[in-house]
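In the design runs reported in the main text, the only information available to the sequence generator was the tokenized backbone. The following block is the verbatim input for one such run; it is reproduced so that readers can re-run the procedure and compare outputs position by position.
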């Protein structure tokens, strides 16, 4: 199925990935999704996310998309997989089996402005405070679920990136 078909209605379960990229200071790169995005436009989210293409390995897909959106490449480590469904409106939703990867990158970014409106680096502690407060509604539902699990179960992996 096409990506558009997978996101219609309540969504059809499909593979996806979510990348969390940290800089040399241990800060996470957040992106604000472009206004042109069909689902969750202008919401803040993880560094990069997408779907593998038909017959594309997950390894090839994550590096392809990292280069397409951020203009960089770096080693990535799989943290976990999770399944979720999130309804955006009556016409569209996410229903994904999502592989969550983390990595550290010190290269300068080349932001793809057709995908990303804005970006910022944030410390894990400040991000945790934002997501625990009234600002949480500005973030995508998959990122909130991922970060909650990372903060709870994988904090040591974050510290290793600093």
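Verbatim output:
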């Amino acid at each position: 199925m096409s990506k558009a078909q997978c996101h219609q209605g309540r969504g059809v379960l499909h593979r996806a990935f979510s990348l969390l990229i940290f800089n040399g200071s241990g800060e996470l790169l957040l992106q604000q999704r472009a206004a042109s995005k069909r689902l969750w436009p202008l919401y803040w989210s993880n560094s990069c996310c997408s779907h593998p293409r038909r017959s594309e390995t997950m390894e090839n897909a994550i590096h392809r998309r990292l280069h397409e959106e951020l203009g960089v490449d770096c080693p990535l480590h799989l943290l976990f997989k999770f399944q979720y469904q999130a309804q955006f409106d009556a016409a569209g939703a996410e229903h994904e089996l999502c592989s969550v990867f983390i990595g550290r990158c010190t290269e300068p970014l080349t932001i793809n402005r057709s995908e990303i409106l804005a970006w910022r680096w944030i410390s894990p502690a400040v991000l945790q405070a934002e997501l625990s407060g009234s600002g949480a509604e500005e973030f995508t539902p998959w990122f909130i679920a991922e970060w909650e699990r990372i903060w709870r179960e994988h904090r040591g992996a974050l510290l290793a990136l600093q």
